[in-house]
Each structure stands twice: as C-alpha cells, then as structure tokens.
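Sequence, structure tokens quoted for completeness.
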Amino acid sequence: MSKIIERIKMLIRDIKASPLVEEGMLIGLSLITLTMLLSMVTGIFGGLKGLFGHAQGGADSLFNEIAQQLDKIWQYIVNLFK
C-alpha cells in the first residue's frame, strides 16, 4: 500500500505527470458529483410519484364519499314518497 502512495506522490511531484493526476482527480470528483445529483433527482421524482399517488387515492376516496352521501340523500327522498 505504501508503494502505491509513494508512486502517487512521485507522480504529483513530476511535472509531466502532474496534470494527468489532476485531471484524474477532477474526473473522479465529477463522477461523485454526478452520482449525487442523479440520486437527488431520483429521490425528488420518487417523492412526487408518492405525492401524486396519495393525491389520487385521496381524490378517489373523496368521490366515493360524495357518491355514498348522494346515494343516502336519494334513498331518503325515495323513502319520503313511499
């Protein structure tokens, strides 16, 4: 392990290899940043999907409740004329 670290230190000190090491570090940093952004976007879309799913379920529940109340009112009116 120490040989690898020594080799990296030598490459950083070397004028010719130093830009390659810097670019490699920048590529690694950009990949980490891209991964984080994609995970955040995925989380946001997952949250929106859940929100709309709950909203749709709430709307279905609301319409069912309204239909039940209208049915009760209709049954009350029908019973008045019997």
